[in-house]
Amino acid sequence: MPNATVTVSEFVLHCAIETDKMTFTIVALAFIYLVSLFGNLMVIMVIIMNPHLQSPMFFYIGTLAVIDVVNSSNLIPRMLAVLLFKAATVPYGPCLLQLSVVYHLGLAESFLLSLMACDRYVAVVYPLRYPSIVTKKTVWFSILLVNIFSAAILTPYMVFATELSFCRSNILPYCFCDFVTMVHVSCTEDPRHLTLLSSTTIITGVGTLGVILLSYGRIIVAALKISSAEGKKKAFSTLLTHLLVVCLFYFPLMTSYILPGIGVQLSAEAYNVLVIIAIMVPPMMNPIIYSFRNKEIKGSIYRLWTGKRVDPDSH
């Protein structure tokens, strides 16, 4: 007799991480969270407090910092609770909410990183036209579009997630509520669920990554024309660090989301590690790569800590 379909009211999260790695994982996540929170909140604070930083480039940097704060706070405290208490119970509604926030912010960050690469491309290749092309209105409109596109792509996931039925188990072998894990645990066998994930990841991931690489490629060509060796070194150092963070964000996520849709099922631990790296590490690195290396932000942080006020009429 087939199992009866059961609508669950809650899920039990259980991180698929080996016991001997548990302590290291807890310490690492706590460290990542504290550094991410401190760094990104510092960036947001100095951009708000310094009128000179309220320009298009810094609006993108500030938006990235907000995304990283919200995403880290949405995930890491819950993950630490799961790891410390071996498992955690999450009601159905909040579980879907966490899933939607994770996917929405992940999509928004991928679009935003491509916008930031285009912003740097225009600034380097067309410096004289930059102020007329990239205005505050353009930036805010592009950020609005990023959220609209992310919500539109997310909508089918939420529809499919509500269609899933669970007749075998409500235990998710994962550190937070996740669409792929729900599909694997459910008794709803429909290939379109994971095919959707693979197809949207390929389209958005490859598309936005392609824009980033093309933009950085043009910037590299422009950097090669710089006459001074010091200028070239600085340009290439900036590009390499940006690409490092981009790769940490894109490749683990693309691997973990595309493979299940084409029939390659990763182990629970491998899937956990890949997604944790992609979602947790970039928010810690972004303030260092995009903000603390910037002389205007460094100057603002110095004035903030030393108590010196920023004069709006001086530059």
TrEMBL record:
It is a multi-pass membrane protein. It is found in: Cell membrane. GO terms for molecular function: G protein-coupled receptor activity; olfactory receptor activity. The chain crosses the membrane at residues 26-50, 57-76, 139-160, 202-224, 236-259, 271-292. One of its GO terms (cellular component) is plasma membrane. The keyword Membrane applies. PROSITE patterns: G_PROTEIN_RECEP_F1_1, G_PROTEIN_RECEP_F1_2. Gene3D superfamilies: Rhodopsin 7-helix transmembrane proteins. Pfam families: 7tm_4. Keywords: Cell membrane, Disulfide bond, G-protein coupled receptor, Glycoprotein, Membrane, Olfaction, Receptor, Sensory transduction, Transducer, Transmembrane, Transmembrane helix. InterPro entries: GPCR_Rhodpsn (IPR000276), GPCR_Rhodpsn_7TM (IPR017452), Olfact_rcpt (IPR000725), Olfactory_GPCR1 (IPR050939). SMART domains: 7TM_GPCR_Srsx. It comes from the Eukaryota. Residues 39-290 form the G-protein coupled receptors family 1 profile domain. Belongs to the G-protein coupled receptor 1 family. This is Olfactory receptor.
